[in-house]
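Weekend entry, working from home. Most of the wet-lab plans are on hold until the incubator is repaired, so I used the time to fold the two sequences that have been sitting in the queue since the last round of cloning. Logging both here for the record. First:
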Amino acid sequence: MGAFRLFSRCSTDDSCSVERVLSKENAVQAEKDKANTRLPNPNPANFRILKIRAIGKYVIVKVNYPDCTNFEGNKILVFHGKSKKEVASLKSLDPHFCKSKKHLSPVARFRPTNRGWHEAVAFCALMDVFGQKTP
């Protein structure tokens, strides 16, 4: 293919026109890019719980969403009013805040780092000690 073909003069009715060759190559590359693309938002049904801890009425979960791009797909979520066992057995876990009765919504999220995990633990301990109810 090279520079010769790129700068050659094909007629518009020629089946090997530069435009057609480049369009086909672009389409093939676009399909490859699409297949390798990870989404910025996680798929709630595609997750793995890496770490879980209960503190009083709160459950802290470090979750990995393999199809998510930010923070390598890791999230730290805090849930209220559910047991560790209930959260661990979920088939779908959406990390976004919502008022849906269909999806369990976190009451807090933290950066998926060691510091973020410790902040989540502190948050839950304080909330549990002071008996605050979350909305």
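Second, folded right after the first finished:
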Amino acid sequence: MLRFCIRSRLRANTNFSAAPRTGQLRYVSAFNRHPSKAQAGSTSFSSTVSMVQEHIIGSADVDGIVAKIANFFGAVAGTTNISNTVTFQELHLEHEALNTSRQMAFSGSAGITISAGQQEQLSDVLAPSAFGLSQFRRGDRVRFRATFNVPQNGSWPTVSYYDSFSSTGATGSVAKMYNAANTTCTNIGGTGALTFTGTAPTTINLLPIVMLGTFASGDPLVILGAKDSLGEGFYDPSATFGAGQFNRALVGDGSAPIAGCNASVFGTTYQLWTNGGVMYSLLKYCNFVDYGLGTNSFTYSTNTPATLNTILNADKTVWTNMRSNAISGAGLRTLKISGEMLGPRTASGGDYTTLAGQTILSEVWNNGGDVATRNATYLTYVGAQLDYTYDPGPVLRGGTDPSQDPFYKWAPNLSQDGTHYNSTGAAAWAASKRVFYLSVF
């Protein structure tokens, strides 16, 4: 059973599907991810990387696509800048169904140098007419194909998980690093799997290129995921339709994906946002935030009201700043924020196939603990600081009675380690969350 709280804080829902075109750039792919760590290049040569990154058009049809590149990443307690430049030699968009690629440009040029720590670099708009189309359709599978390089001992921002329909072959996301003096990528402007001549390249983490665009009409649901490892995809790396509960929920079965961007960071708390002010630059491309931080804030073992109040006040500060950094304008939806309830947490080393094999982590996560108080307080915020709350508990918890221990344990076979889901748990969570997403607009 799905349980979530919806109270009208803003104007009544309006059918935006037939609304006029706004021209506002939004996230337009269900596979967008903001960088969450750094990838080191070679210590012996200037690293050249050729990559393909899969995307799927979400929420509605699109009449223009823009690439967004950042040279910083979200970290545990804020943001971290990449200290070297990243030079893109070329960037292409491949339309998988048409088996065709078209080159993208930066102010009319094929390449661009991204400054150290640069907040964002946008490409020129690529219109669907470049492919002989009137629009990019919702559900179209497209891929960025790019070659970039960094100096010797340099690095680039990356992510821990990729969202793909296939982890290998022509339809998967992949990156290869090499020394351009010895190796050449022969089809970066082509289609299908990357091919090379010379010395074999090394598989490495890609640089996530975020797909922005303009919707052909209206301002459909576009979601920013502000979470930790439970959103990033930890223990769910091989999902066919997105990795982790957030991107799985966006993609569904692939027939009606929802656009958004996953800005989750493993191990983080509200400090990602309170200390990383540049993160708020991500808000102008969405109209809905799924805020799911908190698990890493409650690592203490004894209920401490002062600490709980610090966490709650920090959350409210983040939400206020998110709203102030959102974009407003004719035809645009007012930003809405959903606060996610925290689910069960049990000690590591348990038997997660049974209830008896699990031990509730601490009194903080038990009946009457700070986590339960935090969840109850979130409900009181709806109509003021929050627009919605969503509770994954009904699909994750081992019981329905909050006065009994099973309520604070994982349902059997859904957790990997007592804190994180496994792929089965991620799928159940995502299915429930997708129903919630589709109910809000």
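Plan for Monday: verify the second prediction. The two ends are 21 Å apart (CA to CA).
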